[in-house]
Amino acid sequence: MTTNTHNERWSLRLGRGAGRAWRGYLRREQRVVTSLDARRWPARELYEALYCARGEMENRIKECQLHLFADRTSTATMRANQLRLWFASFAYVMLEALRRIGLAGTELADATCESLRLKLLKIGARVKISVRRIHISMASSHPFQTAWRLAQARLAPG
Questions:
Q1: Which residues of 125-156 are buried (b: 16+ CB within 10 A; e: fewer)?
Q2: What are the Cα distances from residue 79, in Å, to 75, 88, 158?
Q3: 3-state secondary structure 80-111
Q4: Are 14 and 2 in contact (CB under 8 A)?
Q5: Which end of the chain has the lower number of beta carbons within 10 A, N or C?
């Protein structure tokens, strides 16, 4: 650990720098300044397990705010705003389960919430409801019909 003294009254202890990343065909050096123990957190593990995971978490929060409308808290009462946040959180949990369970191994397994909403949920279909079942007829030209059916089969009860 090095000490960088800027003047007599103030000094800053700098942690170690870590990490190199490959992004596609470009090699970019990433630096992370931390005070974590170097023996416990080797540079590559620190960058990939901690730093990148934190960025991915921030991306998921932004996705919930932007695409599931979790940032719309403009109603007059606190209860209504709280209910909106609950609905957005519930929608995120449902879409994450759809991604993790229903769409595992498909081209939509890593899709954003907006992509799932537009490609799988906002589609035209005919719904017939009888006493014992619900029958959904989709257009035969739907581009993600196989992924939709696979997800439906994986998430169906029993």
A1: eeeeeeeeeeeeeeeeebebeebbebbeeeee
A2: 9, 14, 37
A3: HHHHHHHHHHHHHHHHHHHHHHHCCCCCCCCC
A4: yes
A5: C
Model confidence, pTM = 0.59
User: Which tokens hold the place of 124?
Assistant: 């035209």
Question: Whose structure tokens read 């590559």?
Answer: 44
34 touches 14 (CB < 8 A): no
Cα distances from 135 to residues 127, 129, 130, in angstroms, run 6, 6, 8
Q: What are phi and psi of 140, to 5 degrees?
A: -70, -15
CA angle 122/137/128 to nearest 5° reads: 100
Listed in sequence order, the residues at least 6 apart from 117 whose beta carbon sits closer than 8 Å to its beta carbon are 67, 95
- Over residues 35-49, the pLDDT tens digits come to 888 788 888 788 888
